Amino acid sequence: MFSGKARAYTNIALIKYWGKENQELIIPMNNSLSLTLDAFYTETTVIFSEELTEDRFYLDNQLQDPKATLNVSRFLDLVRQKADCSLYATVKSQNFVPTAAGLASSASGLAALAGAASAALNLALSPAELSRLARRGSGSACRSIYGGFAEWQKGTSDETSYAVEVPSNGFEDELSMLFVVVNDAQKDISSRDGMQRTVETSAFYDGWLQTVPQDLQKAKQAIAERNFAALGEVTEASALKMHGTTLAANPPFTYWSAESMLAMNLVRQIRTAGIPCYFTMDAGPNVKILVERKNEAMVQAALAEHFAPQQLILAHAGPKIEILSKEDA
Ligand code: 2P0
């Protein structure tokens, strides 16, 4: 029996990942840059055992159906192959999120699975190797190997596509991210399907790709110079451009709801009133607001006039992946 346990925190991209060059290996079309957060994380235990005849996957103490288990098994196959191991495993994953409002993240989940499975089989991976492995489960997971800011360098192959830490001198500790959890009745389009449809059909996709390198440069310079306004401006611009591509896809779609737009408009109003804050959005209607820690209470109070307290969740920069235990028996 070989077991490992890991905890990984979710991350939110400031410069977005949107589109794959290689679906199978999850090589992205563009570099992305994220902030790892403390408020949402996943703890996963993987136990490889001679006694099992198939993989089993428990999420939040519930045994999962064959489809969800197959995704985990496919990922474990990569780890088994690396370790030359043919044992099946029990995987127990627990998502720690403040509400059940659809905030469970594939980034923290797949990073924790990669960390736990590789620790169990004694793979002793470097951060870059662990990032490469996590990437095979879910693109954004490759950034959750690191605390603070991380850049996923797209590379050109399985070997060269992984995330690295972005030096920041602790700038991330001056930042907060306020999640505005928006309930949405619309049917979801997964990020995987959404980005593929956009790459294949959006008239705006080339425009998206053209400006990513300069946006990334601006973000890295803003981090190095501790320039909050510059980082916020490029963060908001990257999100708007990403979401713009979906409007020109065929068939067109959007992740925005009326409440998302309300939140975005409030951010603009608060900014006009003199408090710097900026929004970003991912493959769903929730809005995330980047604000300096010193101003977080003011922004939260302004949003609380329109959203219920349980819809507002405050997060700060989070740590890198942690291997909590490992055991051979
Ligand atoms: C990001 N998103 O950079 C972007 C912005 C959503 C919008 O990464 O297909 O779950 O597993 O690689 O990583 C969410 O997509 O997609 C995501 P796969 P993933 O955070």
From TrEMBL:
Name listed for the protein in its UniProt record: diphosphomevalonate decarboxylase
Domain of life the protein comes from: Bacteria
A single MF term (Gene Ontology): diphosphomevalonate decarboxylase activity
Entry EC number(s): 4.1.1.33
Annotated family: Belongs to the diphosphomevalonate decarboxylase family.
Pfam families for the chain: MDD_C (PF18376), MVD-like_N (PF22700)
Key words of the record: ATP-binding, Lipid biosynthesis, Lipid metabolism, Lyase, Nucleotide-binding
PANTHER family: DIPHOSPHOMEVALONATE DECARBOXYLASE
